[in-house]
């Protein structure tokens, strides 16, 4: 299970990439895609939508279950990965790359400090056993 | 082979032949077919053979142990079926006047009464025709209650993360927002998190107790107090009523509204979505909103209560009086059991579950909540087997079919990794439970020695492993004649 060190994480298994220009990219972790199994549907957030941190904003559905995605930080949705519409399996294949879900313009950059680093997220996974 | 593929032009089955002389001239042109429906044309014998073959391929409680957790696949006594099929019941027209329906109305009235007593609720409506419809009726009544008080800010329903998916869906359907209440590591609702979550926005909480993780929530009184103090109502999902029948009453636990799955707890053969009946019971303050119709006793006779009697009702859930066949089976089942028999149902259901849990633990399987006593069902987690042998819960489930056991519920609730939710029910003999343990032990041995064998299962059923991912991604269930192009797969999901 890979956990890239340059990303930030949540306990609910989203990852966040700071793009350095006031925006972030959000997806689900390798662990999350593995636990869900083969994804069959992704419901994306609408571009322009305002989100608060921890808002349910997207849904990933596998043959096992449908799961909410919670926005790790607040802001305005600036892009959604439309390519997932026809190919939800991209998240299974490349969770941290082509499988990104949406981008957000941060409303409060300090919220990034509330997120977990790779080491802390690894500990979360270890605690879940 | 699909029955469509057996079709030959001109073949007819007399018993199913349509009435060709029917006059449809009063149907609006826009609603009439432009071309004939692509119905199969087969002989009566072909139709009989086709459906008999399908019934023989069916994996059912009448042929196999069926420990499908959360579904209560118990034996349904033949008496329920034969008595509910008496000609007086079967041939009754749903629009028959009250004066011609006193017999069935007496049954329904007594059923309302028995359900009130066994659940400890103030009043019961039999109208909802399924569990999910009972849920919808329940949350609609919660909404009607707050609205009638002018309490319009209560827009949020709390739902534990382990709940059945129908709970949040019902709340959304009724116009609420859903907030998740987390489950603690011991299987009980996390009370501290619940206290943080309630407030003036709280309309209510939907709880299943015993919960979907197979344990009785010991904090139920604290939960009830917390939600009630915040001004919210308590909804009881009756999915697991089989565990507490005649022992604990949701009304006594402080619940304001409950739905029951009569097809599960009160014995109707069910599966694949029906048939069902989902009566709702309520506390006194919710009584005005009960769905209609209700049956009232009026001296020596019975009468229907409708909108005129109950102006604040949330309305009708179905045409006529509900799913009569299921209600009758439940009535007969309850009459056969009596109060004493109902207690035995829950006693044997929990005894069987705890026996099976203990035996599986002794055989080396890992319980999800080892420190907890099982209710009428329990969860084992195969994450160790998945890690060590690469054989997951679904592989075990499929291989069980080869051993003659219907698979337990897999991957629900999702918060337990690689889980099987196992509900033996009260009607299984000890030998069936022992046989199941032996099969599980044998499968784990195979997983260790020949994992590919388990991953390739099943081998003995009419079909091998189905491609559930492709079925979900490219759903295509419409049959088309070979001469026509197949329909395009629908968009994503189901």
Automatic annotation (TrEMBL), chain A:
Entry note: cofactor: Binds 1 lipoyl cofactor covalently.
Domain Lipoyl-binding: 23-105
Transmembrane segments: none
Cofactor: (R)-lipoate
Coiled coil: none
N6-lipoyllysine: residues bearing it: 64
GO cellular component: cytosol; glycine cleavage complex
Subunit structure: The glycine cleavage system is composed of four proteins: P, T, L and H.
PANTHER family, A to Z: GLYCINE CLEAVAGE SYSTEM H PROTEIN, GLYCINE CLEAVAGE SYSTEM H PROTEIN-RELATED
Its job: The glycine cleavage system catalyzes the degradation of glycine. The H protein shuttles the methylamine group of glycine from the P protein to the T protein.
Protein name: Glycine cleavage system H protein
Source species of the chain: Halochromatium glycolicum
Gene for this chain: gcvH
UniProtKB/TrEMBL annotation, chain B:
Signal peptide: none
Enzyme Commission (EC) number: 1.4.4.2
A GO CC term assigned to this protein in UniProt: glycine cleavage complex
Cofactor(s) this protein requires: pyridoxal 5'-phosphate
A GO term for molecular function: pyridoxal phosphate binding
InterPro entries, sorted: Aminotrans_V_dom (IPR000192), GcvPB (IPR023012), GDC-P_C (IPR049316), GDC_P (IPR020581), PyrdxlP-dep_Trfase (IPR015424), PyrdxlP-dep_Trfase_major (IPR015421), PyrdxlP-dep_Trfase_small (IPR015422)
Protein name per its UniProtKB record: Probable glycine dehydrogenase (decarboxylating) subunit 2
Native species: Halochromatium glycolicum
Gene that encodes the chain: gcvPB
């Amino acid at each position: 299970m890979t956990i890239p060190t340059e990303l930030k994480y949540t306990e609910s298994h989203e990852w966040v990439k700071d793009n350095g220009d006031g925006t972030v990219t959000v997806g689900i972790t390798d662990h999350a895609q593995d636990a869900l199994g083969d994804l069959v549907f992704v419901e994306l957030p609408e571009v322009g939508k305002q989100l608060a941190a921890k808002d349910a904003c997207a849904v990933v559905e596998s043959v096992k279950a449908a799961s909410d995605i919670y926005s790790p930080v607040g802001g305005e949705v600036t892009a959604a990965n439309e390519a997932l519409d026809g190919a939800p399996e991209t998240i299974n294949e490349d969770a941290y790359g082509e499988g990104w879900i949406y981008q957000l313009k941060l409303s409060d950059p300090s919220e990034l400090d509330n997120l977990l680093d790779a080491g802390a997220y690894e500990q979360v996974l270890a605690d879940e056993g | 082979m699909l029955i469509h593929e057996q079709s030959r032009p001109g073949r007819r089955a007399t018993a199913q032949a349509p009435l060709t002389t029917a006059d449809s001239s009063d149907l609006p042109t826009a609603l009439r077919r432009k071309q004939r429906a692509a119905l199969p044309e087969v002989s009566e014998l072909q139709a009989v053979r086709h459906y008999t073959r399908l019934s023989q391929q069916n994996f059912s409680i009448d042929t196999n142990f069926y420990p499908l957790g959360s579904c209560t696949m118990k034996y349904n006594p033949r008496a329920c079926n034969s008595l509910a099929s008496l000609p007086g019941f079967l041939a009754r027209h749903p629009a028959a006047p009250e004066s011609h329906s006193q017999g069935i109305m007496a049954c329904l009235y007594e059923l309302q009464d028995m359900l009130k007593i066994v659940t400890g609720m103030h009043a019961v409506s039999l109208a909802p025709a399924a569990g999910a419809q009972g849920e919808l009726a329940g949350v609609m009544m919660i909404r009607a209650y707050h609205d009638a008080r002018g309490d319009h800010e209560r827009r949020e329903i709390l739902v534990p993360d382990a709940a059945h998916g129908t709970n949040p869906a019902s709340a959304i359907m009724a116009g609420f927002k859903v907030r998740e209440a987390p489950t603690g590591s011991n299987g009980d609702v996390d009370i501290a998190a619940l206290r943080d979550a309630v407030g003036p926005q709280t309309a209510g909480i939907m709880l299943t107790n015993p919960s979907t993780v197979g344990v009785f929530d010991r904090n139920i009184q604290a939960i009830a107090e917390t939600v009630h103090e915040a001004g919210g109502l308590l909804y009881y999902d009756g999915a697991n009523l089989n565990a507490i029948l005649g022992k604990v009453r949701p009304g006594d636990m402080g619940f304001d509204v409950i739905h029951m799955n009569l097809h599960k707890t009160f014995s109707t053969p069910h599966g694949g979505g029906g048939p069902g009946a989902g009566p709702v019971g309520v506390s006194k303050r919710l009584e005005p909103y009960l769905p209609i119709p209700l049956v009232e006793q009026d001296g020596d006779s019975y009468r229907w209560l409708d909108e005129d009697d109950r102006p604040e009702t949330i309305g009708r859930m179905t045409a006529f009086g509900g799913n009569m066949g299921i209600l009758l089976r439940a009535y007969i089942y309850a009459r056969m059991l009596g109060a004493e028999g109902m207690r035995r149902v829950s006693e044997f259901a929990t005894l069987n579950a705890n026996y099976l849990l203990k035996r599986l633990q002794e055989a080396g399987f890992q319980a999800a909540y080892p420190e907890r006593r099982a209710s009428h069902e329990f969860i084992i987690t195969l994450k160790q087997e998945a890690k060590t042998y690469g054989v997951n819960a679904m592989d075990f489930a499929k291989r069980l079919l080869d051993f003659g056991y219907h698979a337990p519920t897999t991957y629900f609730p999702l918060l337990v990794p690689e889980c099987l939710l196992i509900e033996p029910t009260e009607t299984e003999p000890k030998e069936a439970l022992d046989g199941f343990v032996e099969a599980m032990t044998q499968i784990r041995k195979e997983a260790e020695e020949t994992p590919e064998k388990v991953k390739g299962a099943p081998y003995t059923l009419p079909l091998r492993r189905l491609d559930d991912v492709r079925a979900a991604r490219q759903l295509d269930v419409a049959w088309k004649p070979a001469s026509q192009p197949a329909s395009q797969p629908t968009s994503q999901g189901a």
